């Protein structure tokens, strides 16, 4: 994949809206108070998730090398060993493994540092690879497809990925309404009584894509 360069020479994959990135953070942490009370230590969100820290950093979907690179300067050696021990562990096994993890605390500022500097660029590359042409969509739409891939991963094959795959040609066609419809259709996968947050997230992603503007001021845009 070839990505553009910023004025400073750094690679970037997507040009997204600040509003979109703020929305992704809100999806993950709800509010600063909620983060400090419920998410500043390792948690298991349920379903097929792994043990999760910071802003949606799922240790079950990261390998040991990535986890070490992202966190070795931000946690103690003992805490890092605990995080590495659950690399790749998902589902009920992750729930059980959580019992044996050190109860480390990750302040929100530290979590944001990893999120913006390490996690988002990695998922931006995945998004652009999964959806060629995404960089030509409006910035809000780019941000919400980044949100989708961050939440669900980039895979497009299999019955649970039907809508993910259907989005690919819609991106190439620039069909924002079609993309929004496919994102809403994904709600079939989750019981609204058990995972209402995913229903809200899909609706909000679809809404921002369908209503995406074509013109933004430079201050409204960020490159990841």
Key features?
224 residues; two-stranded antiparallel sheet; Lysozyme; two-stranded antiparallel ribbon; mainly alpha; disordered N terminus
Helix content percent band: 40-55%
CATH topology of the largest domain, by name, is: Lysozyme
Major sheet summary line: 2 strands, antiparallel
- Shape descriptor: globular
CATH-scheme architecture of the largest domain = Orthogonal Bundle
Strand residue content: 5-15%
The number of helical segments is 10
Order of helices and strands: EEEHHEEHHHHHHHHE
CATH class of the largest domain: Mainly Alpha
Q: What do the pLDDT scores average to?
A: 92
User: How many strand segments?
Assistant: 6
Note down, in words, how this protein is organized:
With 224 residues, the chain is mainly alpha-helical. The chain folds into two domains: 1-30 and 109-217 and 220-224, Lysozyme (Orthogonal Bundle), CATH 1.10.530; 41-106, no CATH class. The protein is 53% helix and 6% strand. It is built from ten helices and six strands; from the N terminus they run E-E-E-H-H-E-E-H-H-H-H-H-H-H-H-E. The strands form three sheets. Strands 1-2 form a two-stranded antiparallel sheet. It has a two-stranded antiparallel ribbon with strand order 3-6. A two-stranded antiparallel ribbon has the order 4-5. Helix 7 packs antiparallel against helix 10 (196-210). The longest helix is centred in the middle third of the chain and has 23 residues, at 108-130. The chain is globular, with a radius of gyration of 17 Å. 33% of the residues are buried.
